[in-house]
Amino acid sequence: MAKSACQKLKLLTLSRILWQNTDENHPMTVPQLIAELERQGIKAERKSIYTDMEALRDFGLDVQSRKGRAPGWFLGERTFQLAELKLLVDAVQSSRFITQKKSGQLIRKLEAQASVHQARQLQRQVYVDRRVKALNETIYYSVDRLHSAITAGKTVTFQYFEYNVHKEKVYRHGGRRYTVSPAGLIWDSENYYLAGYDHHRQELRHYRVDRMADLAVISLPRQGVPQDFDMAAYAAKHFGMFSGREGQLTLRCSNRLVGVILDRFGLDAILVPDGPDHFTVTISAVVSPQFLGWLFGLGDGVTLLRPQWAVDMMVDQLRETAALYGL
Predict the structure, then answer these.
(1) What global pTM score does this model have?
(2) Residue 127 above 60 pLDDT?
(3) Range with the poorest average pLDDT among 136-145, 285-294, 301-310
(4) Are 286 and 237 in contact (CB under 8 A)?
(5) Which residues contact 203 (CB under 8 A, 6 or more apart)?
(6) DSSP 122
(7) Distances, alpha carbon 141 to alpha carbons 109, 194, 325, in Å
(8) Which among 218, 225, 277, 289 is positioned nearest to 252, based on CA atoms?
(9) Whole-Å CA distances, 83 to 26, 138, 146, 279
(10) CA 141 centroid distance within chain
(11) From the CB of residue 92, how many other CB atoms can be counted at a distance below 10 Å?
């Protein structure tokens, strides 16, 4: 690159040096800045550095200087603070629906938001967690397409699969494409789900995004999704996003489970005292094996009172489980 062209890039190069190489604990002196600029083919004088720093400040960068035992120039406030980046890295690494490969790519991009010195702390964060990650590499792009379809009010089509014991994809319905009008996306139990109106079944259903293949947005306008569809209420009814029969269920709970009930159903749940040690609560839920398992996990602290069909399902589930152990 010609010398004159290099000089035109001086301010941009200087801002990049500050962004990549400096922070509050790692300032660069003027001689160091001049040496780094020259290494990149740009001549600079001491006086011009001070003028450039003022220009960068006027542009909006938080360029700061410090005197004393560790003098120099550094970039102060950034788009993300180090603590925020650590939180985002943890979220990416612990998110099951993001594959290991995509997690690494996203974390490297997050590291670029910090200085090279701070990035080392983020790299140490990466190896803290060893959670199982999703296998479907396309999920990252599927989520983006689904958001686009929701915003545009369009319908999507896709194939849906499971894995067999050989870890091979087995497509449902012989590979027939599903046609769904998306209502929204739900993040539940470390998985991403699409909730929407299934055109074939003509009902609202949900699908794991990492089980979708060959997702496409088509021109067909969205249909079947109620105008007042409440995504939060839909997600709250489906334990682990398992399907089943929906109903108004009444539970009798020990007072020690108040926190458990409020954590699951929110502060709007109406708790009615029932004697000195118990309360009742009526909730809307989809009765599935996952829901019944949740109830069982609470032990003798909760009793399902009604409706009777839900009580019968609970009893049948307990009998089937007991039979597996010869009881």
Answers:
(1) 0.58
(2) no
(3) 136-145
(4) yes
(5) 197
(6) H
(7) 17, 14, 45
(8) 277
(9) 17, 30, 31, 42
(10) 14
(11) 20
Which pLDDT does position 309 carry in this prediction?
Answer: 96
**Distance between CA atoms of 22 and 66, rounded to whole angstroms?**
12
Strand-strand pairing, 245-254 and 212-221:
unpaired
Distance CA 250, CA 53 (A): 67
Asked whether residue 137 carries a pLDDT value surpassing 70, the answer given is: no
Whether the bond between 307 and the residue before it is cis, its omega within 30 degrees of 0, is yes
Lookup: tokens for 287: 């009765």
Distance CA(324)–CA(229), nearest Å, equals 41
253 Cβ contact list (under 8 Å, min separation 6): 261, 278, 279, 280, 281, 298, 301, 302, 303
Compute how many other C-beta atoms are within 10 angstroms of the C-beta atom of residue 203: 9
pLDDT value of residue 126: 44
Which tokens sit at 211? Answer: 């089980």
Residue whose tokens read 């040096």 = 17
Torsion over CA: 196, 201, 207, 212 (sign): negative
What letter would DSSP give residue 24?
A: T
Check pLDDT > 60 for residue 164.
yes
**Residues 41-60 pLDDT 10s:** 999 999 999 999 999 999 99
d(CA 189, CA 27): 44
291: closest CA among 237, 230, 232?
A: 237
| Structure-block tokens of residue 92 | 């990416």
